[in-house]
Automatic annotation (TrEMBL):
It comes from the Bacteria. Pfam families: FdhD-NarQ. Required for formate dehydrogenase (FDH) activity. Acts as a sulfur carrier protein that transfers sulfur from IscS to the molybdenum cofactor prior to its insertion into FDH. Keywords: Cytoplasm, Molybdenum cofactor biosynthesis. This is Sulfur carrier protein FdhD. NCBIfam families: fdhD_narQ. Belongs to the FdhD family. It comes from Halobacillus campisalis. The active site is at residue 104.
Amino acid sequence: MKRETRHIPMIKYEDGKITHTDDEIAEEYPLTIMVNDEEFATMVCTPDHLEELVIGFLASEGIIRYVDDILSMHIDKGRGYAYITTHKQVNSTSSNKRWIGSCCGMSRAFYFQTDAKQAKTVMDDFKVKPEDCLNLMKAFQERASIFKKTGGVHQAAIASREGIELIFHDIGRHNALDKLNGFMIKNKISRKEKMVIFSGRISSEILIKVSKMRLGFLLSKSAPTDLAIELADDLNITAIGFARGKRMNIYTHSNRLLIEESTELDLN
């Protein structure tokens, strides 16, 4: 069984003093995905919840839509391979194998046009109180145990008004969302009145991935990009950034927030 972290020897320098100690480091694990006996992609991830990660990734790529689209799945953790057989033949637009890194941006080898075609306008219009959002973010950060140990992972959660329901972490911010989506697909969990809580920056890629998950509420402690805000507006997704302490910035579709006229929120 792969570990999530490793203890690595190091030399610590602090206030002019040298200490020989060790540090807890997030593990980086390459996983090659084989679909119908063909190599589809190799991704770098945190080696936990690999089945959920693969399901979520394949759904995000448009290879599957439901868990029943998968005929069989076997993950060889020792060799770092996931073998998937689907009921329908996969029509690949390119025979090139892809390496999907743990960082963000074009290293994931995504093509924006293809992703945008799969994005769907979210129709769920449930409402939540601003203070509930801030309380959820507080609970989210309190449960960031691996990040507190390593400082090297992202975290994503599914929550409702009542609290956090699912939470996953990974060295890749896309992977953390794929694990969420994979778990929901695998267990046929309803998307109704659910929100995503996220540790990372809200980029256009992240926004599109949330839209593919058919979720209309994204709450992050980090900043958005301008294109992500434009997409959130078009796709009917409430995008909230800088949710920290008693503050948050609401960028799109504030109609999902139950804000009274007397409520004071710092939107700057």
